[in-house]
Every structure is written in C-alpha cells, then in structure tokens.
Amino acid sequence: MIESVQNKVVKKVKALQQRKTRDKEGLFVVEGVRFVAEIPQNNPILFYVLSHTFFANHDVSMYEKRSQVFVCADKVFDTIADTEHTQGILAVCQKKEMSLSAFPLKQTGLYLLAEEIQDPGNLGTIIRTADACKVDGIFLSKGCVDLYNAKVLRSTRGSLFHIPIFQNVDLIEYLDTIQQNQIAVFAAHLKATEYYYHADFKKGCAFVIGNEGKGISDALAKKCNQFIKIPMIGQAESLNASVATGVLLYEVVRQRLSEKGGKI
Q1: pLDDT tens-digit series, residues 168-204
Q2: Which of 29, 64, 81, 123 qualifies as a cystine partner to 86, CB 3.0-4.6 A?
C-alpha cells in the first residue's frame, strides 16, 4: 500500500493535473466510480489508484483484470483527488487522438464548432448536452479550455467517451470542409433577423458556439450560412453558452423527431 505522497505513482497523478504534462504524455485522469465505469474497453488505462477504504469495501477484480491497481492510504489518496468528497477511485487513461482529415462527415449529420470556450463547466455541459442530442462531432478551436481539464471531464459525466471531439481546430478553414459536404452552418448572432425555430434543421447542420464574453469572431461569422436568434423577452442580454447550445440542439431533436412521427 502506498503511504507516502513522494511515491512515484502519486507524483505522476499530481503531475497530470497540469495541462502541459497531459499534452506531453498523452494521458489524463478520470475520477469517480461511474466515470471510471464509462471508460470504453478500447481506451487504454495505464493504471488505477484506489483509496484503502475503497479497496477494503469493494470487489476490485474487474479493475485488476483490466490494468494495474495501486492502493493508497486514504490521506494520500485525498492529496491527488480532484473532488472534495472523493469516492476513492481514479484511473489514468491514454488519450485517443483522432485524425481530423480522416473523420467522415455525414450530409445528414449534426455538428458543433466551439470558438474559444473558456469556462470548463460550460464546455463539459455542452459536451454532455451534445451527447444527449446525438451530435456526430465536436470541433474545438485553439484557445478553448483543455478538453481534459478535471472540471470539464466531471461536467461531461462520461459523455467525453461517446462523441468524436477534436481540439485545436482551425474552425475557419474547417468550415470549408463542412460546407463542401452540403452541411449548413448556423450561428446565434446579434445580426440575426430570424428566430432559431423558423430555420430548417432537418438536414445536415452545424452550430458555431462563440466565446462567453466576445461571442463569435467576425471572421468566423462571415463563413456561416445563416444567423439565427433566441428570443429574449426578459432583461438578460444573453444566455450562458451551454444553455444556448441546449436550446438550439433540442430544436434539432424536435424537428427531426417530428419528421419521423415522434419516433427515435
């Protein structure tokens, strides 16, 4: 059992709390019983770390069959846990990097392009909502918060593993590829004259989600096929980025379910 914070396993997990280490080693940390259970079988796990209490009260054979398991004294585990009330289990996983050029776009697909989203909770919630709405791919610009930030991961509630997500994408350049596949690109924008529920989302479509403070850059806005707006009948000037994304995505779901007679 690991009883020192100077142990190399403990140090490795703590180092992965930094983005530069995650990027360099291609690893990230997943914490919590449910989240760990969501890790797909084809996603390599370097090792698990369990608290002594978790180890003593759970059947850990499923973890031991899949990868190496280390057990820490509870106080040591607390030093590497990201959550205040930890469940006593984490896994160190390898990132599964995908080639953007090889990613197949579907003409009937649904996609999100996020430009410089800064808040980890926003990005994680956007990913979770996208998963619920069966989004086919998410493209994150340079300047977005790291996909493997601990708060982003927690907010996804495992949805990270269900959707292809690409980081550091040149969105202006990639919009050309999307549009060449006859996929219409929409953006919620102040210059919009049409409400989002009047637009046709039954065919392939993509939504651009802008930075929380600055919105969508002019260069990216110029590439969009259509601006849309969400009614604001109260005094708030705008919606949270993740809330706005949810409103738009569920209109897509509504329209496509309606076209199918309400059947999924």
Answers
A1: 999 999 999 999 999 999 998 878 889 999 999 999 9
A2: 81
Question: Which tokens in the block code for residue 158?
Answer: 């495992």
- As a whole number of angstroms, the distance between CA 47 and CA 2 comes to 14
Question: Are 83 and 54 in the same domain?
Answer: yes
| 71 inside domain | yes
What is the spatial distance between Cα 78 and Cα 90, in angstroms, rounded to a whole number? 11
- Residue 88: give the domain boundaries: 8-94
Percent pLDDT > 90 in the chain is 83
pLDDT in tens, 22-80: 999 999 999 999 999 999 999 999 999 999 999 999 999 999 999 999 999 999 999 99
- Any residues with CB less than 8 A from the CB of 26 and at least 6 apart, and which? 94, 95, 97
- Backbone phi and psi for residue 211, each to the nearest 5 degrees, phi listed first: -60, 145
pTM (global) more than 0.85: yes
Residues 17 and 80 in one domain: yes
For the chain, the domain total comes to 2
Q: Which amino acid is at 139?
A: F
Domain co-membership, 124 together with 89: no
228 in the same domain as 123: yes
Over residues 148-176, mean pLDDT = 93
